[in-house]
Write a structure and sequence with these properties.
The complex is a heterodimer of chains A (261) and B (305). Chain A is built from eleven helices and ten strands. With 261 residues, chain A is of the alpha/beta class. The chains are: A alpha/beta (261), B mainly alpha (305).
């Protein structure tokens, strides 16, 4: 495991997961996970349902802090700071690391206000700044052309795929260091999925992406690195082509060939 | 083929009970509505001869044809105003605190059980509490303020419970979306939970006020008058500072007490007055409900999930 990790590290990590354990009350959901996240690359987390991949993803923006009884151990170092430390405010973490959820969850507000929300809560009220940043974010999320004439309409007037791109724009507007994606296409049809995937491949030039996906094909299609999890443990982490062509671990092989999961 | 016949017979049998329930349900509802309509209609017909301008602009009088509800409807309006101003902020804030801020432990459970049970406490108990606390201990007098605060206590559980339910109905995905952007708890409440639940909270407030407007027992307990021939001080003045709160300290009466007073008199003419006052009271309640339905419709137009 250790040699294997060292082999994989030929990049500059933006975040380092070190001896991470996570507990839901009594349930030990993440077991001693160690790996590094490469900067401005797409890293995919794969594994069967219930293996802890979403739980791991939600450690990165301290979402678990919202519910009682959850406990972290170990650390996630982002630029040398352990973001799981008690003295670090979860709000600070969420301002640096944003998230796109499984089901599109725009606010029942206008398209403009949805994207501008991240800036508004920081106290930004200048119309020129908001206009400019909302436009940039919508362009990055490939939604500007469709949305520019209806910024004041409700976000619920958009289709499912457009809503998910709106959520991506909302996550990008504050220029985060890392964007977390939790199965962002599982509620979408193939065409919308395709456009979101294209969008994410383009985004990695600007931002580090960590994505949880159910679909191995999706991981193979556009991620640079892949982490395979099973029963709360990280079984293997390597370049995506290595994982899919010659996995080192038996269990990875079994999962990829459909024997477990 | 034999099989299909059997399936159909089986379905027919099961549908029979379904249809019986539908019919019985419809019958019971019709009976209930008809009785209610008949009673209300009777009251309107009885009271109709007295429903004119004078009835609203006259003080009560010993002569039935001169008696009006001026002091009663103004009293009711002012008391309802105090009730709403006192109950809404406290109730909504308590609901938000219990739902979003309070830790979920035995203390929260205890508070929850108590709040729910408070909604079922007989209203006269609130009257006794108010008599001891507001009238004697705080020396607020037998005033509009005391009555408003008493009825506010009475509807507080309703406001708290509906606020909690309205906030709970908001999908968790929206909370998570806001928190994931780095919002504080208060920002989530202010930017999302309150605006999205406003329509439902308002409905709860109006249901509470509709209950309060018909309450008689607690208002009598704190010493509301049954016969009053002057109005509270005007809240708007011609001299600086133009508004006055003297009316809060004024003695008062309310619609149900005025009605009760007339019903208890032997003369038939006063019975007509009571019916007319009842009709007005029902219109006030219906009016509040209509406003609630309209506002809820307007506010929910853009919000669905």
């Amino acid at each position: 495991m250790v040699e294997q990790l060292e082999k994989a590290i030929d990049f500059q990590p933006v975040a380092e997961v070190k001896h991470l354990d996570f507990y839901y009350s009594g349930f030990h959901a993440i077991k001693n996970v160690n790996f590094d996240i490469p900067e401005k690359k797409v890293t995919a987390l794969i594994g069967p349902s219930g293996c802890g991949k979403t739980t791991l993803l939600r450690c990165f923006n301290r979402m678990h802090d919202l519910y009682p009884g959850n406990r972290y151990q170990g650390g996630i170092l982002v630029n040398g700071v352990n973001i799981l430390a008690k003295e670090v405010d979860p709000i600070e973490v969420r301002m640096r690391i944003s998230m796109v959820f499984q089901k599109p969850n725009p606010f029942p507000k206008s398209i403009f206000e949805n994207v501008a929300y991240g800036l508004r809560i920081r106290g930004e009220n200048s119309r020129t700044v908001l206009d400019e940043k909302v436009e940039d974010a919508l362009k990055s999320a490939a939604l500007w052309e469709e949305a520019k004439d209806r910024l004041n309409q409700s976000a619920y007037d958009l289709s499912g795929g457009q809503q998910q791109r709106l959520c991506i724009a909302r996550a990008l507007v504050t220029e985060p260091e890392i964007v977390l994606f939790d199965e962002p296409t599982s509620a979408l049809d193939p065409i919308a999925t395709n456009s979101i995937e294209e969008l994410m491949s383009g985004l990695k030039q600007k931002v580090t992406i960590l994505i949880v996906t159910h679909s191995m094909q999706q991981a193979a299609r556009f991620s640079d690195y892949t982490a395979f999890m099973y029963m709360g443990e990280l079984i293997e982490f390597d370049k995506t082509e290595t994982i899919f062509s010659q996995p080192a671990q038996k269990r990875t092989q079994d999962y990829l060939s459909g024997r477990i999961g | 083929m034999q099989n299909l016949v059997e399936i159909r017979r089986n379905i027919k049998q099961r549908q029979l009970f379904n249809n019986i329930f539908a019919l019985v349900g419809l019958f019971i509802i019709l009976v209930a509505i008809l009785i209610l309509l008949a009673l209300t209609l009777r009251m309107f017909i009885d009271g109709a001869p007295r429903l004119n301008w004078g009835f609203f602009s006259n003080f009560p009088s010993r002569r039935a044809e001169n008696a009006g509800i001026l002091s009663a409807w103004i009293g009711t309006t002012l008391v309802m105003l105090v009730t709403a101003v006192a109950a809404v902020p406290v109730g909504v804030a308590s609901g938000i605190y219990l739902e979003e801020y309070a830790k979920k432990n035995w203390l929260a459970d205890l508070i929850e059980i108590n709040v729910t049970n408070l909604a079922g406490v007989p209203s006269i108990i609130y009257g006794l509490l108010a008599l001891g606390l507001f009238v004697y201990d705080w020396s607020l007098g037998e005033s509009v303020l005391t009555a408003g605060l008493t009825l506010a206590l009475l509807i507080l559980p309703v406001v708290i419970v509906t606020t909690r339910e309205a906030i709970r109905a908001i999908p968790n995905s929206l909370r998570e979306a806001a928190y994931a952007m780095g919002a504080t708890k208060w920002q989530v409440v202010q930017d999302h939970l309150l605006p999205y639940s406003f329509g439902s909270i308002l409905t709860g407030v109006i249901i509470g006020l509709s209950r309060a407007i018909g309450e008689t027992a607690p208002v009598i307990t704190i010493g509301a008058l049954t016969f009053i021939a002057f109005l509270p001080d005007s809240p708007i003045k011609s001299e600086f500072p133009f508004i006055s709160f003297e009316w809060l300290k004024a003695p008062f009466t309310v619609m149900p007490i005025q009605m009760f007073n007339w019903v208890s008199r032997p003369q038939a003419d006063f019975q007509v007055n009571a019916a007319a006052a009842g009709a007005v009271l029902i219109f006030m309640t219906l009016g509040m409900n209509a406003v609630a339905i309209y506002l809820r419709y307007q506010l929910r137009k853009g919000i669905k999930w």
